[in-house]
Predict the structure of Glutamine--tRNA ligase.
Amino acid sequence: MNEEKKSLNFLEQIIEEDLANGLPKEKLRFRFPPEPNGYLHIGHAASICLNFGLGLKYNAPVNLRFDDTNPAKEEQEYVDAIKHDINWLGFKWDKELYSSNYFQQLYDWAVLLIKEGKAYVDNQTSEEMAIQKGAPTEVGTNSPNRDRSIEENLDLFLQMKNGELAEGSHVLRAKIDMKHVNMHMRDPIMYRILKKEHHRTGKNWCIYPMYDWTHGESDYIEQISHSICTLEFKSHRDLYDWYLDQVCDPAKLRPKQREFARRNLSYTVMSKRKLLQLVEEGIVTGWDDPRMPTISGLRRRGYTPTSIRNFSDTAGISKRDNVTDVALLEYCIKDDLNKTAPRVMAVLNPVKIVITNYPEGKEEFLEANYNDYEEGFGSRSVPFSREIYIEKEDFREEANKKFFRLKLGKEVRLKNAYIIKAESCLKDENGEVTEIYCTYDVDSKSGSGTEASKRKVKGTLHWVSIKHAIKTEVRIYDRLFTDEAPDGHKDIDFKEFINPNSLQIIEAFVEPSLKSASVLDRFQFQRLGYFCVDKDTTKSNLVFNRTVPLRDKWTKK
Ligand code: ATP
Ligand code: MG
């Protein structure tokens, strides 16, 4: 029992305690509450995996609630993208809901608060109100409008609602305590005038409720038992509770806000505002640019739902702010693709080999497994001919004993094919090797069972037959930022740390079996890394993204 307790995270412990104290298990209900003002990122994935994970663990419903109270920044495009991403991650929400569904109820409650003398309309400037707010170490002072009569407040609030007052001229404030130690309790704003069309309610409203007023009451309406948010809302908890106090029916469930630390990831930024800047300024090609830490960017890059869920679980949840090393995310995708991706051959930086004793015009189709070590992957046939490409770095005229690749006078095996021996090479005026002449051992065909086929040679190289290879575009990505914490510098803008070499586009050659690959198909290009078909692929141009290399220079550093 004790051991089981230990393995629970602190939120699960809170839930277990609540259950032990009499909360019926059927009352457990969670929600994931994105604001549809951008695409989801890997930080949101932490919250998604947490909330939906609790739903699965306790067999409790999880609502998807769009927190759509700011029409200036919210769009249907974002709503659609968010739903797509959550589905793709493999989670099912119970109800799809919108805070905007509750605008009328929230308005009615606000009127009730005014009638009880607990809210008032203020028409000071925001500067005046900011000064009166005081500071954490200095009490605030009351607004001159604080004692407006209930009738006048009701009348002004109605005028606000009816669009009779100018944007920014009036707000509704809760009347709490301008001397409260918690700044959020010093007569917080409940409503502001915003003459903007809302993506769902259209022109119905021109006053919009603030986050704090909306969130807790929405949780209450939906009867969410545990409203889990990130640490920056901890100081809002007093206000969350005060607002609940005003409306909660003691016979009903009272939601509980609890906080955990945001997921931060090294070498990137995670705020939607900053990600939007990257998109709008054309620093990336869009929200789904494969260099973005968004779910859609990671998907396009070749990440799997499993890898993202494993990453979230492994990184865990914490009570304190911290930064997760992006190397963990990269480990998670390598680990998953290692288990799932078929192995194929591609040459990224080609040099030509001519096998001089292989008959001109001849071609053979060699059977090759998609995975030599695991069952169930199947196989395909790979064409072989007299002229092939190998990687430039796999050949040296001379090299020491540790170089197990091709060198003059020595043998290597071509994967799934024959043993070849380098005899001579041709160089251009710069001394660069342009062609390598080899001979092959006719009897050494892989899997043929002959003595020669069982001969051990040190190196095995990947290759493609020039005549059959498909020329493709390969996009090689590096980290988008050169700094571990690009937005962690006080006086330097995060964009100063953009890596100018985060995208390299090369022409490469892949085996013809890839002709039928579809967008998002993932492969291991043997000895190189994991690659995924990009959506820019057309009939005549196959485009691959490199998801991760097998080894990378960053971990070596
Ligand atoms: P951002 O600061 O990136 O714009 P946000 O908090 O404004 O994020 P929301 O759409 O309001 O984004 O977030 C929806 C839910 O996801 C909230 O419960 C929020 O606390 C959680 N969330 C957002 N970012 C992270 C993160 N980096 N790590 C964990 N949870 C997060
Ligand atoms: Mg937010």
